[in-house]
Each structure stands twice: as C-alpha cells, then as structure tokens.
Protein: Heme exporter protein D
Amino acid sequence: MNALQHFFAMGDHVVAFFRMGGYAGYVWPAYAVFFAVLIADNVAPRLRRRRILRELRGRLARQDARARRPPPTSVTPSP
Structure:
C-alpha cells in the first residue's frame, strides 16, 4: 500500500476525528475560545507594557522640559 492509498484509507478515521463523535459543534468552538483566550492572555501584557512605557516617556519629557525652563523672575512693585 503506497502513501496515497494509506491516506485515503485513513480518510474515514480523519473525518470521524473531526466529527468528534457528534459533539464537534461543542468541541471545536471550545478549542477556538481556548486559543483566543490564550492569545489574548499573551498579547494583553505586551500592549499594557507598551502603553505604560509611552506614558512614562511622556512624563519624563515633561519633567525634563520643566527643569530646563529658566526660573521665573519676581517683579517687586516700586513704592
């Protein structure tokens, strides 16, 4: 039996696997939700880190600009 014949002979088993014994309508969406949560759980901290770093850079830039400003001169009223 060559590989192609073997593949087609296994076709019924593959179809049965994807049908999940009649529960495919429940099993495959559960897998989809699982992988969506897994991906979101991986991406969310990266996005949060990027946002926090952007906010910190902005805060540091504002502090640096404030520190570089000349001090205000006080004007005393003449009597």
